[in-house]
Description:
The chain is mostly beta strands.
Amino acid sequence: xxxxxxxxxxxxxxxxxxxxxxxxxxxxxxxxxKEIVRLPATTRLPKSPSYINGIANLRGNIxxxxxxxxxxxxxxxxxxxxxxxxxxxxxxxxxxxxxxSVLTVKEVEADSIKPPPPVVQTVDREYLSGVxxxxxxxxxMILNVDEVAKLxxxxxxxxxxxxxxxxxxxxxxKTTVTIDEVQLVTFSLGNEDYAFEVETVQEIMRVGNxxxxxxxxxxxxxxxxxxxxxxxxxxxxxxxxxxxxxNDEHERILIVETEEFTLGMIVDxxxxxxxxxxxxxxxxxxxxxxxxxxxxxxxxNGKKLIMILRQEMLLSDDExxxxxxxxxxxxxxxxEENNDRQPDGREQAMxDEVQLVTFxxxxxxxxxxxxQIQEINRLxxxTRLPKSPxxxxxxxxxxxxxxxxxxxxxxxxxDLRDNDDRTRIIIVDMAxxxxxxxxxxxxxxxxxxxxxxxxxxxxxxxxxxxxxxxxIGKLDNGERMVLLLDSEKxxxxxxxxxxxxxxxxxxxxxxxxxxxxxxxKPAKKKAAAKKTVTKKTAAKKSKAKxxxxxxxxxxxxxxxxxxxxxxx
Length: 568
């Protein structure tokens, strides 16, 4: 492209990039073209104009790509191998124009450039700055890129001032959970449900590349890298003496703090992030084989049990020592959680990160700052309400509290689909009310450096209905993009008022039922999603364990931890 920047020797001539759209030939002044690239992988944006093909990562920059055919109202066509993107700049913002093919770079004589005719058959005259007419050559239309990629700059500037020029990242008011509740990350191993307390879980990750290491202890699956830190990944099934299960797409790695290390724990499937009243948690049985258990949650009057694991007791002192020796012998610098041994600059690095819960709606991946999330549950029964806004799916019962549920697919203008066993409801605070957002599936909890978050592209931020995007997160060197939602801005003011009325009406009904003596029962879950674990099963599991309490830690050492907090 350097040659494209060369100035023509004849100041009366203009260099043009000629390209094709449908059956028509167009041109763009060379000084408006930054570069020409193949069509990269794009991410569709919800509520974006129909002519926005999506956004792409261009060497670290978020590049909105316009479908120029759609913008000029030409016949639609799928991109081909010949398709190219002309990277241009409009009002200081990069923009990509998707064209069918690039023909050539040509020097055009000044006297062959004419004003656009009053009537153009195929393209609106406003999108043209002129035409090239010369002898018997076909008519070439010169694109008015400022009009084609017109942005509401005033709205962009207004939004930039509103957010202080940042990517929508703000310091949230964090509060801890109430003292009579405990917050758990629940997961399954076979037909049994387990949990870790949420403050011990740093992240929830997909199972990616696990490096095999020779001579490792049998319960170590291999090594993983988390933000440039190497750590062992444990097969929690093997650690708990459970039967082995074939790997599948539902497996996740929980990054968990122990007394000695930060470790990856491989589980079959992550269920929920949820608060439970301490009143339904009983102490584990008084057995030498139950030392790994911190408590047992009795759900549905004891029909389902969730065993809370004591992560600091999963490994004995001897096992911790042998792992440390093995790591030293292999030359592995494992990440330790003792604050006194943190490397210089790590606390600052953590301060420059945000924690996200990522999830899918359709083919696109979204994220919400974890401080905006109260809990994540399986989708229960939803009761539809008459005369409610289209995007309100209905209301659901959350442990006696009736909350409205938003169908995110409808809100974002996506095709509808049936819910399944992977569908989850994300509980956020919206307009001062607990509100559920339906997600097709929840992927992981991760930390993302703030330097990897870009503001929404101007073509989006200028549109009032799409200001629920607070930024674009870039992962895997930009190959994976996560659309960051601001839960407080998913609805506009009028929609928030409608939500308030729905929530108020629903809770009035709930209150009348309570006054009349009717018990408010939690919504029943689908039969396919039920997992029943009896006390007998839990006891059988405990008896099957071969470890003894000998050599186990009797009490964890107190230390400062960086907690995964979720706002109340």
